[in-house]
Amino acid sequence: MKLDPKVVVWEYTLACNSNCIHCGSDAKVCRKNELSTTEALDLVSQIKGVGFSRVILSGGEPTIRKDWTKIGKKIGEEGMQFGIISNALAWNLKTYDSLTYLNPFSIGFSVDGEEKLHDYLRGYSGSHKKVFDSIRELKRRNLVVCAITSVNKSNLEELTKIRNRLIVYGVDAWQLQVASPMGRMAENLDLVLNERDYYRFGEFVAETRERVGYMNVQGADCMGYFGELGKRIHDKWEGCNAGIKGLGIESNGNIKGCLSMQNPCAVEGNIRNNSLENIWLSETNFKYNRNFQVSELKDKCRGCSYGEKCKGGCQSQSLAFSHEFHNSPYCFLRYETEQKENGKNKKRN
Known about the structure:
Layout: E1 7-11, H1 37-50, E2 54-58, H2 68-77, E3 81-86, H3 93-102, E4 106-110, H4 115-122, H5 127-140, E5 145-151, H6 159-168, E6 173-178, H7 195-211, E7 216-219, H8 227-233, E8 246-249, E9 254-256, E10 269-270, H9 276-281, H10 287-290, H11 307-310, H12 315-322, H13 332-348
């Protein structure tokens, strides 16, 4: 397995000033023993040493920590691209000036609906207004802005309205992803998409990619795989890249293949006990992707002709739904196949 380190997503703190119903991290207060500024600066150098080219600060809410600009600056000094995902609730003029100086390759905001629904889902009145006021200011400063939408049953019907608003505000990119049953979302299972909802969601993403060429529209890795619809969403699906191209870092120094894997089994080590290079290069880590065998496919993924490439879809989603790897709960190809079979059965009857 050839390793190709590209992107690190770093939970800089678990503390958060929002209270999202669908938060997969259950972010509220900081973890015990979060990395100090000195440890974080050293970790940036280690990330560069392994060969990663992009580092995205996430949370929780990364700008709650007063030292986030030091880390952003260090990322740039190491020759890597700096990105950030924020809710903007704590932002002020100094924040905008800092971002202008740091010039991130992307500044991401969650946009989960029109104002009433967005504020409800995020548990903070005024959140929607703050986000779009911030987008307006950042675009005035010619910075790159990305919107991120976590789709569930409550906002599936608002996607068109969200799209229209993002176009008006000149948002550069839009990542659409499924709200999986982990963290606080696990307490709101009535909002989880069923297979038909998921396919409708996929149709919307495909149609938006084809219609809105001036905005970079991406279905996240939790969307796919193969089939007619899959081809319209991913130019090429090579399977989950956790531990191959991507890496997740928790605020206490825990290392995962993907930050979205909210399961203790995904932790491969901690930078306080071992170097990042040793964790990354260990032959015993990230086995679910690096040493994958087709025989590991579970349930409906077992026997699929695309199994070797697909590996059972998004591994964080698999863990969220079934608490095991290689068991995707959603699949465009599977849905299309089942619909064709149902159609044949109806004709026979």
